[in-house]
Amino acid sequence: MARPRSSRPYGQIAAPRARPSSLHVASDGAREVTEQLITDAGYHPVPLGGLDQVRALEDLTWLLSAAMKDGAPIFDRFAVPGEL
Q: CA torsion angle for 57, 24, 83, 71 (degrees, to 10)?
């Protein structure tokens, strides 16, 4: 299966854009602190909504973990075509 043009292996991403992202959900009152903690850890925060989206994020995490089960590392960055 061909990879989409907007996807690059982690090692091929230009240095200024190499900071990995961290998907997260947070309540409105905790969003600023959550994003600051993610940034302080060296990641780019990617908000997916409020706490009503927790189950969807858990399901996505399970799906990605299952995909890596056979030893194939998944470390991709999703981007708008032409952004990378």
A: -50
What would the pLDDT profile of 19-38 be if each residue is shown by its tens digit?
A: 788 999 999 999 999 999 99
pTM for this prediction: 0.60
Query: What residues contact 34, with CB distance under 8 A and at least 6 apart?
Result: 24, 26, 45
Q: Residue ranges per domain, the chain? A: 20-67
> At 34, which helix (H) or strand (E)?
helix 31-40
Q: Which residues pair with 9 in a beta bridge?
A: 76
- Structure token pair of residue 8: 């690059």
